[in-house]
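The aim of this short unit is practical: by the end, you should be able to scan a pair of folded records and say something sensible about each. We start with the first protein, listed as its amino acid sequence and then its structure tokens.
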Amino acid sequence: MVSTTESSAEPTSPGASNPDTPSSPWASLRDRNYRLFWVGGFVSNVGRWFQTVAVPAVIWQLTESAAWVGFTGFARMAPMALVSPIAGALADRFERRRLLAVTQSLQALATGLLLIAWISGVRSPTVYAGLSALAGVFGGLNLPGWKAFTNDLVPRERLLNAITLNSMQFNAARTVGPALAGVTLAALGPGWAFGINFISFGAVLAALWLIDVSSVPTGGASSFTPMRDFVETTRWVRTQPGIRQAMLTLCAVGLLGLPIQVLAVVFAEDVFRGSEREYGLMLTMIGLGAISAGPLVAGRGSVIDRSRLLSWSLSLYALGLATFALAPNLIVAFGGMLILGAAHLTTGSVLNTVVQVQVPGDRLAKVLSVHMLVLTLSSPVGQLVLGQIMSRLSPRLTIAFAAAALATAATGFIAFGRLKPLDWDGEQRHHQTGLSSPG
């Protein structure tokens, strides 16, 4: 419940609080360090999509079970939630560039084990679910540091621009990676997909090595107490209306929206009688939709209230899910995925920006670990639950239910004014409400 002083605070629009916000959608790419980080991430993410497409396709090939596909997605992402407290503390304590080099190398190791398992003739779905879980552990250790590193590379007024460009990079990779992965899987098999992903980690490792660390802040935490810090940070988040609502919104999207990216393989092969190629193209459409929205959000998003942007994107998200669920053919399904991509980029950019603008710098990595806990717990639970429902009812009814539930949640957020605190600027909010900036 929001206190009286919090409710009476006048929200400040992002544009008003940041008069120097750049209007160019490419502003952050002018910085050499950020540009290296962006390009390295793009190449690595193209490779990562080969694995993202290959694992559900392998599980479906071995089991023909939507429940198994959902369980494997759960196995990959649930460990990310478990390591979130440690990951946030690590990102605060150690120099983030070195930390990212270690976590990226560990993720390459997990991919190498998947490659070895496939070329050795292992065909047990349990093995691939287990190795996906290991990859999830290493990915979870990487995520808070990766997100916080963006904050180290660009000034505060360019955060939304840089975060949106990160999302565009990820989705640009999605337009290339899944389509190439689908063709590779169909023509050469999963071994090649795992191998390409393994090699692609070299790009981000090279970028991290080339970044000029003289202008990048180093870790400053003097103690390493991850669980105590995590509990204390969670309590602090509950007192911040904007951050709290961002987490709640992320939970709704994670439960009801994100699972489609894994469960779409069931539509591709069972509903539309296609193959890995069609599944790859579905994910490519999400990337194209995101790239379409990216320049608008990066260039003009900083002068539009975040609450308004999010209300639009949540409505689009529900529309995209409904369109995909009820699509009579692949062409219409692709249209639904385009809508989903635009909505996903906008939603993710806004929620990430809220966290990075409203959280003091000394808390950022810890709050991002809570942010990642919500995402990496809600999404696998959604995959597990929707996968089970899908195996008992039908894919179309399951995703239509998810669309209706997300639309209901979005309507409630908008109708009761729950999105307004997202517009507050962190420093001005502390001044207006009398809350001191936590140390």
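Turning to the second protein, read its sequence before its tokens, just as you did above.
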Amino acid sequence: MSETKVKVFSRTPSIVETPSNCPGCGYGIISRIVAEVLDELNVADQAVGVGGVGCCGGLFFSMNIDSFAPQAHGHSPSFATGVKRAHYGDVIVVTSQGDGDTMAIGPGSLINAAARGELITIIMTNNMNYGTTGGQMAPTTLIGQRTTTTPDGRNSKDHGWPIHTAELMAQIKGVAYSARGSVHNPANVTRTKRYFKTALEKQINKVGLSFIEILSMCPPDWRMEPVDACKFIQEKALAEYPLGEFINLDKIE
């Protein structure tokens, strides 16, 4: 009796090794999303990754694309601008930054790149804490969330309110696309991949800057098992950070 084997899944060509992340971290999923979209749009050979400081900085290390990491803390959009302009727009430039790198250290670089309408795509992974340095409070930490610097939970009086970056970016002229996705379950992985593909198409079509925020699990610093970290996003984080597209333009006038 003959046996027929059918391949049902394989790595996309741009992934060359398994990312090294903590158990339950969402960064490996995000790496796969980015690589799959680059391959599906047939632009992997034109792609340049720019990694920020933090866990996010190694996003491109598992991919067979050119990349630079890490940059000066918070300044990946400025570095990405230089790469894009130096190559006269003939490269596809994607940054990978964390919520701290983007909104604690780097708002000046981010907002001014957006205002200039730079033809780059920015990924901000939001795990609601400083993942690399031990789990301190970040600009995106939820009200009531415990971190190493807010052991009793974040409160608005002492620590301010969480920053909603995707919504903020949608208000800046020069931004063609801004969305927020998540990778805490299969349905949202698919949805987030669609968002990233749209974001990259805005760059390819030279519309303006594109931005995608991605909610991701951080079980070690949240002091949770991986399954509970996924539930935390579903039950807590989505109430503060709704998913969806906040601006989607085909032309900026």
